[in-house]
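can u do me a favor
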């Protein structure tokens, strides 16, 4: 199975195949609006503004599994992010990244970049960098700021 065999739910509930993103560099992030890392939306949007035309897509997956820090509906989350951080990158339906209802996307990402202490997503704003061929290149911790991973993104563009 490859990344491009996986489908996810758009914020409007329709199925989206990740094959729609073939040929793009992806940064996949599980997010929350009430988290100490929420201000990272600013850095994510800056990366998106700078590199979207060069082939970067940031895929935002709100997750309420960590301290219930993503309350509300997906439309409330989307409005919050647009109004407070000016986000324009794709945001998808809320998902689980661990446990029995874990998204197939996150099962795949964790399988590709796991190891000691990495078999689970530990918190919101864990990031996965994917190359243009769909390979998971790197996993970043929640505290890794978007501006600190910019050089890795540029290397793949």
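np, heres the sequence
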């Amino acid at each position: 199975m490859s990344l491009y065999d996986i489908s996810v739910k758009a914020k409007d509930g329709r199925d989206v195949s990740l094959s729609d993103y073939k040929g793009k560099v992806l940064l996949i992030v599980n997010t929350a609006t009430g988290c100490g890392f929420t201000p990272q939306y600013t850095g994510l949007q800056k990366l998106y503004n700078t590199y979207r035309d060069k082939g970067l897509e940031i895929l935002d997956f709100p997750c309420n599994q960590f301290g219930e820090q993503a309350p509300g509906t997906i439309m409330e989350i989307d409005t919050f992010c647009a109004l407070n951080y000016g986000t324009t990158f794709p945001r998808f339906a809320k998902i689980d990244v661990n446990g029995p209802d874990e998204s197939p996307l996150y099962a795949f990402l964790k399988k590709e970049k796991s190891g000691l202490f990495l078999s689970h997503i530990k918190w919101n704003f864990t990031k996965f960098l994917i190359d243009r061929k769909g390979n998971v290149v790197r996993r970043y911790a929640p505290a890794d700021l978007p501006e600190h991973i910019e050089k890795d993104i540029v290397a793949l563009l």
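The first strand starts at residue 7 and ends at 9. hope that helps!!
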